[in-house]
Amino acid sequence: MSGQTTAVQTNTLATYLEQLEKKDLLRFITCGSVDDGKSSLIGRLLYESQMLYDDQLAALEADSRRVGTRGQDIDFALLVDGLAAEREQGITIDVAYRFFATERRKFIVADTPGHEQYTRNMATGASTADLAVILIDARKGVLVQTRRHSYIVSLLGIRRVVLAINKMDLVDYDETIYASIKADYARLAQRLGIESVVAIPVSAVHGDNVVAASANMPWYQGPTLLNHLETVELKARQADAPFRMPVQWVNRPDQNFRGFAGTIASGTVQPGDRIRVQPSGRLSTVKRIVSFDGDLPSAGTGKSITLVLADEVDVSRGDVFTTADQPLECADQFEATIIWMSEAPLLQGRQYLLKTSTRTVAATVTPVKYRVNVNALEHEPAERLELNDIGVCEVECDRALAFAPYAEDRTLGAFILIDRLTHDTVGAGLFNFALRRSQNIHWQAMDVDRTVRAAMKRQRGCVLWLTGLSGAGKSTIANLIDRRLTAMARHTYVLDGDNVRHGLNKDLGFTAQDRVENIRRVAEVAKLMADAGLITLVSFISPFRSERQMARELMLPGEFIEVYIDAPLAVAELRDPKGLYKKARRGELSNFTGIDSPYEAPSRAEIRIDTTQVSPADAAEQIVDYLDRLGMLVNT
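The structure corresponding to this sequence follows.
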């Protein structure tokens, strides 16, 4: 590295690394609208501060000649735009991270995309940053994407912003333009609660005010970008912050050792400290602090350790260790702010996986309270969130979580939402607070349980979930199964899609969101009936795999039996017992499954019935025989 060769040569490598280790670390992001010059600014910063190796510089010069946009000059954006698509289009798509260091400080910079469709990537880069460099093209001023990025910056708790007013060379280094943009952004920052904004006029292409002060702007007397980054005050960690450590791994290499590994999120710990395991609330004492370098007398924030406890308490991955007298709050219902990151919309009632720290649980978003209009900074009513929307929602989890509001703890206050089928990350969220109603609801123990109720009926409770297109034969077959089991003195009940919509679900329509809620409610009812020892037949189109999977996971293992009543669309439409296909074809019925709304066929149904080959009576007989072989029709 050309700028530090002398320093390395005059000191031993060990001394150099020790000095580097002691330096403060500043994490910052660059963001702004499309083509504001973010990558060029970071590239110029690295180049002028002499933070490039000789081979990097040679590669940059070669790439500039081959794919650069600056003619014979160096195209500094190529230092961070590493993807082929980025170089071809001249834009940033993914988040590019770069590490560099000066004599004063270490830095990790995240260069984030400007396009609206990649806002999710920008939010990812901002989640760990201490400071944001927001670029504005001096020719364009504050744009919608500037507002969007500034809102996300404030939402994620970044309170220090550098407003880099770029391309000053293209406005003849006009001070009035700089002053006008600075004033406009100051008003926005005040509304967002951004505490510190330092406006710096720069030209990334020519290096004005990036590392050295610009002779082209004598009217500006403030710091250069690098000078500000080197001297800005970092938020001090609270010395008295309570100890919190999510458990990442239970380390049990042999019968003589049992420890709990994780990274300390806040506070310090030492042997002899009383700690609490959450959400269970169990108490214990720290016996040892084990690390790669051996046992430690104490450990603090950011340290990866293994704790050995004095007691044999039940601890698993996802639990959180806290100071005994300063526990976290535990809840299963929250208000949360969600940044939606998927092309498919967030649907109320659909179940997702929620991952916070080291714990993953099933979670449902219901309802969406409002969406934020980031341009006007106003709240708008919404029933779902689309790509890049930011909304405030209520989230219900299937079990209690130990958490902290994001404003208090970035680690334990943040989560992501994951699609249950594709395992794609579809949203990022921030816990605001626990809903009070969740603190007032408790499980009531009952003396008569599901085993007793099933034994009284001389059968095992289960759910037969019949799914398929309208006209495939679900209701007909369910009715025949019900008659056959009743004749055998079995206890059954049929939940039929049409019948349930006359009462329990009469308030729901046929949008994708209403279909999701339709199945959620029916699945919960089916669960209660199975608990009562009934053989429950559910006859619903239930078009989405995600909701059928949600219903399966509500039941005990082996209790949910998916039956795919299969008929080609052409056959189902030809049957059309209720005339619904004709209405849909005439445009009188919208969101009809198979016509203008999709049906996702089961991928692993326990039973498949092809109703073009099997009669309803034979189908019912096959399914009853299956139940008998499974042991559901016990008669003892």
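The chain is about 30% helix and 30% strand.
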